[in-house]
Design brief:
two-stranded antiparallel sheet; transmembrane; LapA_dom; membrane; mainly alpha; elongated; 2 strands; Lipopolysaccharide assembly protein A domain-containing protein; 5 helices; 116 residues
């Protein structure tokens, strides 16, 4: 199974390198459209290879998706934490109740009750 995973990762690396080599041409990215840039007297431009734009878009999409899911699942994590805290509280209360119940019992009988 490990060999299959390494084989797939190697094929993915070869594919990504092939895409990068096939798309090395420069492209100019602008922060604002030309009309808005002249109106605001501010323009940022960056010239990068096309494959960086491609891979950057994939990376940005993955990051946005991960953050979106993390935020969406917040209520589930909060509910699980609340249930866990309630479970700990109830376990402590049960131990206290059992200790109070068994304080006047014989030690052997208390041990037998705990083993059930």
């Amino acid at each position: 199974m490990t060999y299959i995973r390494y084989l797939l990762l190697g094929l993915l690396a070869v594919l990504l390198i092939a895409i990068a080599l096939a798309n090395r041409g420069p492209v100019t990215l602008q922060l604002l459209p030309d009309d808005m840039a002249t109106l605001l007297a501010f323009q940022q431009m960056l010239t990068v290879p096309v494959f960086l734009v491609f891979f950057g878009g994939i990376l940005a999409g993955l990051l946005i998706g991960f953050v979106w899911e993390w935020l969406r699942e917040h209520k589930h994590r909060a509910a699980a934490a609340q249930r866990k805290a309630e479970l700990r509280r109830l376990e402590r209360q049960l131990k206290r109740t059992e200790a109070e119940r068994d304080k006047d019992k014989d030690e052997v009988l208390a041990i037998l009750d705990q083993s059930r």
